[in-house]
Specification:
alpha+beta, L-fuculose-1-phosphate Aldolase, single chain, seven-stranded mixed beta sheet, about 250 residues
Length: about 250
């Protein structure tokens, strides 16, 4: 194993711990995957049967784009996770990392006919950036791959209707920050709905200005998306338990 793979394994294992820290884990289910540097046809996924707190750099499973395990391991991989992640990795060269969660807020919005409204501080940042995919039951049928690919297109934010949330990124921190933004948007929407009071609308013109406003906000912070946030949370999980670093 070369140093690049060791480094990406540690970072992905840290991401699993961060997702759990954020409250985004669910029993032994859901997935975060990342392409192996220098081996674009291979990616890493969590061992099926382990909680996110048990995922380490060494027990991550390497698979090929068709879902075949390509190295010795004591674990299997989740068929539903393989279908979703392999389909996107195979067709989106820029999607180096993919995360998928079943959070309560995310699933609540995914079950609503109108989907995510662009009417709060976080969701307006996603103006015209969110794709949707119709629910077809547990994602284990190969025939769904083509429709999933069409649904996400070139976007990095996908709401799986009646199912959950998915985000992509060109790095692990990028995917994480995209998920944090989508999840927070859903949390605020569900909280506002529970309040049962009239909603202050956000104009279409504000939505259209968002990308420019973001560029102004980030002008003096020349670091990749999610880098600072991911590093801060990794320091937090390190203080609690850094056993994920075992390569």
């Amino acid at each position: 194993m070369n140093q690049a793979e060791k480094d990406i394994r540690v970072q992905l294992a840290a991401c699993y711990r961060i997702f759990d820290y954020m409250g985004w884990s669910e029993l032994i289910y859901n997935h975060i995957t990342v392409k192996v540097p220098g081996e674009e046809a291979h990616f890493l996924i969590n061992p099926y049967g382990l909680h996110y707190k048990e995922v380490t750099a060494s027990n991550l499973v390497k698979v090929d784009i068709d879902g075949n395990v390509v190295e010795k391991t004591d674990y299997a991989v989740n068929p539903a996770g393989m279908l979703i992640h392999s389909a996107i990795h195979a067709t989106r060269e820029d999607a180096h990392c993919i995360g998928h969660i079943h959070s309560t807020a995310g699933m609540t919005v995914a079950c609503q006919e109108e989907g995510l409204r662009i009417d709060n501080f976080y969701s307006v940042l996603l103006y015209n950036k969110v794709a949707y995919h119709d629910f077809q039951g547990i994602t284990v049928m190969d025939g769904e791959k083509e429709e999933l690919i069409k649904s996400i297109g070139d976007k990095n934010f996908l709401i799986l209707k009646s199912h959950g949330l998915l985000t992509c990124g060109n790095t692990i921190p990028d995917m994480f920050m995209n998920m944090a933004l989508l999840q927070r948007s859903c949390e605020i929407q569900t909280s506002v709905d529970q309040a049962g009071r009239p909603i202050v609308p956000v104009s279409e013109s504000i939505g259209q200005m968002t990308e420019k406003l973001l560029e102004m906000q980030m002008a003096n912070t020349p670091v990749p998306n999610g880098h600072l946030e991911f590093a801060a949370l990794q320091r937090l999980v390190d203080r609690e338990d850094d056993s994920y670093r075992d390569v």
